[in-house]
Design brief:
The complex is a heterotrimer of chains A (362), B (142) and C (115).
Chain A lengths: L5 E5 L11 E7 L2 E8 L7 H7 L6 H6 L6 H16 L5 H30 L2 H22 L8 E2 L2 E2 L5 H27 L1 H7 L7 H6 L4 H7 L29 H24 L15 E10 L2 E10 L6 E5 L1 H12 L8 H8 L3 H4 L2
Antiparallel strand pairs in A: 1-2, 2-3, 4-5, 6-7, 7-8
Helix pairs in contact in A: 4-5, 4-10, 4-12, 5-6, 6-10, 9-10
Chain B lengths: L1 H9 L25 E3 L9 H5 L5 E2 L20 E2 L9 H5 L7 E3 L13 H12 L12
Antiparallel strand pairs in B: 1-4, 2-3
Chain C lengths: L1 E4 L5 H8 L5 E11 L3 E10 L6 E9 L3 E2 L10 H11 L2 E2 L23
The chains are: A alpha+beta (362), B alpha+beta (142), C alpha/beta (115).
Chain lengths: 362, 142, 115
């Protein structure tokens, strides 16, 4: 006699989701045995707009608006691809400033993900506390670039604004405060007994599965797969400012939270080294010409690896812009992890992946 | 678990993080991205700002009487700026050959558009004079 | 970036011989519309722990043929294949339409949009 199964949707609108995605779970008595996913609710046709409506020097602003949290990674990847096609190079000071903002973006995005995971586990007080402390980082982002989330800081040839010595001091002050708070959170995540019931041993991705599904980002590093694009690229000076790859072994939600907390601490250290060792020079170099040829550029967004393929043919309109976002590559791994878990843990597992659906369905 | 209990209790006595805007004034920063301002007397009408703007918020449509007797204005154009289409990126200022004299970014906040001002209809008419007709334009192409 | 040309019949064997999950990382599929009604389909790979090493296998096909699937070698390719079907209207073995676009929206938006 076959057991009866019921279909429960984690619908397109759900209280634990930040962005619309629909999963249909086939459950047998609270255990999930089948997953069917539907992404693409926020498809806006960005790839087509980049080649028909906007000239190549405006595309940097268009792609920044694909996602709110990894906006600067998109615009940086496109700008570096365009600079490769134009045969141009930026000054060392501009490269350091770009890295500074990229790491600050990583810090605030990881804090958002951690607070969202806590909220889905029921710990509202921690959610509010992390969000309140995240304001310290948002404040320095606003002082550097003028905006809290969409920085619009990078242009073809360099960056738009410089940082003064006074601003550098304020950055270091705020980062010291954030570091103290992150140490308290780490203590809480490691030792709080009720959180461990919700996080340890749940939503595991084994190392073999991580290799098989080509997992990326903190998801892969929590399972022991040592992959980080910051190790595999040479356009930004990561080997000079003290980048260290953080990994864990167990692959469950607890391991992913620990990887993110460790990455926040490493990013704070890197930002400090950048502000203390900023080289002299200009922040913009004038670049002329039209893009020609094809190139592939990869970056480490807070959620994983981002790839841009840009092809130009010597005119002001580009021929093809292909964007591969990190959450897009993680969707096959999502569907595998849910199998065998309890239905009540599904929102917490989903939040620990840190899905960014606006990036997926561009 | 006890530390979080004590922390939650102490939170009762702390000041809230939120700002009671608009009752309390928001602190103004110097690096605020405000409106783009223009000085017609210094402009040389090279139209570089119009070409550089990503959303097309600066346009120079032709008019019957030129706005001043600036001798550089050979084709009788007038500067039009739409603060509600602008994304405050500053590309126009970087493209301008005289960045602090003819075009610059101030720290003034934009005003809210109200229905009586007919912002969209006005901008559609300006775009039509340049020959730009978008899909939702209220001005029909003849 | 290293580009290697192949053909529709041989691409499956070549990828099977080349791909090793412990040293190569599959990124995505990509389609580039070319002149005279042809499509260039690319398979992009990057090497783990080596800076700036990217290998691209590509084939040039017309729009009315079927591309072989590689889901049994690389399970995470299913989502890139479904996107190619939606965006370009080309058939890929075992991949259904409807990832991003519904029936009442614009179909195959990237097919010949620039040419």
């Amino acid at each position: 006699m076959s057991k009866k199964t019921i279909n429960i949707p984690l619908g397109a609108q759900h209280i634990s989701l930040l962005e619309p995605v629909r999963f249909k779970f086939e459950c047998e008595n609270e255990k999930i045995i089948g997953v069917d996913s539907d992404v693409g609710f926020v498809h806006r046709g960005v790839e087509r707009a980049c080649t028909t409506k906007f000239k190549f020097d405006a595309v940097g602003y268009v792609v920044a608006r694909i996602c709110g949290l990894c906006a600067i990674t998109h615009s940086l990847a496109y700008t570096v691809a365009a600079e490769n096609l134009l045969g141009a190079a930026v000054t060392s000071k501009a490269a350091y400033l770009r890295t500074l903002l990229l790491e600050l973006d990583r810090i605030h995005s990881h804090m958002l993900c951690l607070s969202h995971t806590c909220e889905n586990a029921g710990f509202e007080a921690m959610f509010m506390q992390i969000m309140g402390d995240r304001e310290l980082v948002m404040e320095i982002q606003e002082l550097i670039s003028g905006n809290r989330v969409q920085f619009d800081y990078i242009c073809i040839g360099g960056v738009n604004r410089d940082i003064s010595a006074q601003l550098g001091k304020k950055i270091l002050e705020n980062l010291t405060l954030v570091e103290k708070k992150v140490r308290e959170y780490k203590d809480e995540f490691l030792n709080n007994w009720s959180l461990s019931l919700k996080f340890k041993g749940i939503g595991t991705l084994s190392l073999e599965d991580a290799y098989r599904f080509n997992a990326i980002g903190p998801l892969a590093r929590a399972s022991g797969l040592e992959t980080d694009v910051r190790n595999e690229m040479s356009y930004l000076p990561y080997n000079e400012i003290g980048f260290v790859m953080q990994t864990q072994k167990s692959g469950d939600i607890h391991a992913r939270n620990m990887v993110r907390l460790d990455e926040i601490q490493n990013s704070i250290e890197m930002c400090r080294n950048i502000v203390n060792g900023l080289p002299e020079g200009e922040i913009i170099t004038k670049i002329k010409g039209k893009p020609e040829g094809e190139t592939i550029v990869r970056y480490e967004a807070p959620r994983g690896e981002l790839m841009y393929y840009v092809k130009g043919n010597g005119s002001a309109m580009l021929e093809r812009v292909r964007i591969k976002t990190p959450t897009f590559s993680s969707i096959p791994a999502f569907s595998e992890i849910f199998l065998g878990q309890e239905y009540a843990d599904a929102p917490a597992i989903l939040a620990s992946f840190d899905p960014c659906l606006s990036c997926t369905a561009k | 678990m006890f530390t979080s209990l004590i922390k939650s209790f102490l939170n009762l006595f702390k000041k809230p993080q939120t700002l009671a805007y608009p009752a309390d004034a928001k602190p103004k920063e110097e690096s605020y991205r405000g409106l783009i301002e223009y000085n017609e007397a210094e402009c040389i009408y090279c139209l570089k700002c119009e070409k550089a703007c990503p959303p097309g918020a600066i346009l120079f449509p032709p008019v019957d009487t030129p706005p001043s007797d600036n001798e550089k204005n050979k084709k009788s154009l007038k500067y039009e700026y739409n603060p509600w289409l602008c994304i405050y990126c500053g590309e126009c200022v970087r493209a301008c050959p005289k960045p602090n004299e003819a075009l610059w970014q101030s720290a003034k906040k934009q005003s809210v558009a109200v229905a009586q001002e007919n912002v969209n209809g006005m901008w559609d008419a300006i775009e039509a004079r340049k020959g730009i007709f978008t899909k939702n334009s209220s001005v029909a192409k003849e | 970036m290293q580009k290697i040309q192949s053909s529709r019949e041989k691409i499956r064997q070549e990828i099977e011989a080349f791909y090793d999950p412990k040293s190569w990382h599959f990124l995505t599929l990509n389609g580039v519309a070319l002149a005279d009604e042809k499509l260039e389909v690319q398979w992009i790979f990057a090497k783990y722990a080596t800076p700036d090493e990217v290998v691209v296998y590509y084939i040039e096909v017309p729009y009315d043929v079927e591309i072989p699937t590689i889901v049994d070698i690389i399970p995470s390719a299913i989502i890139s294949q479904r996107e190619l079907v939606d965006m370009f209207g080309i058939a890929v073995e075992g991949s259904t339409k409807g990832l991003y676009l519904d029936e009442d929206s614009v179909q195959t938006p990237l097919k010949g949009c620039q040419i």
